Amino acid sequence: MALRLGPLTLPWPRADDRDDPYWDFFIHTPPRDPANSVTQIIRRAPEGAINPARADIHTPEITASHIKELARFLGADLVGVARLDAPDAADGEAYPFAVVSVVRAEHDPRAAAGLGGQVPVQNALYVTFVLSAYIRELGYRATAAPHPDAERLAAAAGLGTLDAAGRLVTTQYGPRVYVADVIRTDLPLAADG
Asked: Does some domain include residue 180?
């Protein structure tokens, strides 16, 4: 039995019990001008310069564990490193590794275009932006960008498996995840998976 205290009802309604048009608008209605959304603002931000003096780093295994720990600190729920099969040639040089981050998603950002539905995308962009800046500060190249095979790279990094539709399914969170922009880097890392 619910207890009503004026406008409040105890216990609180569950998220799946919502029949609120404002909540539906918040989750499903995209902004009128997508150029003003936080995701586009972060993606348009300049990457920054690479530190000309490379930092002394540990072994690839220890460096990979430090990068993963920093990504989890920044808000990633799962992080892995994948070796790129045919290293991406961007800027005329190859990137041998990809750092893949995954965040939990209550709503699928591909189906929920509203500000509330894009929260996992915003959280993931924060992680990849700061993490790639940190790698550049160490003196190595790193660029974060959407990757057409991001879910396959996440599976190759041992973060989960792909279902029949090619979507990432993790053991911890199931299919309710969002794969962040992939960070391609030449920082010596130990690949997972």
From this structure: yes
What's the confidence (pLDDT) of residue 1? Answer: 46
Unique residue bearing structure tokens 């009128």: 32
Query: 157: domain range?
Result: 20-46+59-185
- In this structure, is residue 1 part of a structural domain? no
Both structure tokens of 101: 């981050």
Give the C-alpha separation, 159 to 169, whole Å. 8
Tokens coding 124: 């993931």
Query: Does residue 11 have a cis bond before it (omega within 30 degrees)?
Result: yes
DSSP code at position 78: E
Tokens of 144: 């974060």
Q: What is the CATH number of the domain that holds 38?
A: 3.40.109
- Tell me the pLDDT tens digit for each residue of 35-71: 778 888 888 888 889 999 999 999 999 999 999 999 9
pLDDT of residue 91: 52
52 in any annotated domain: no
* H or E element in which residue 129 lies: helix 119-137
**Contact between 121 and 109 (Cβ < 8 Å):** yes
User: Is there a contact between 139 and 67 (Cβ–Cβ < 8 Å)?
Assistant: no
Element (H, E) at 25: helix 21-28
Residue 79 tokens read as: 């992080």
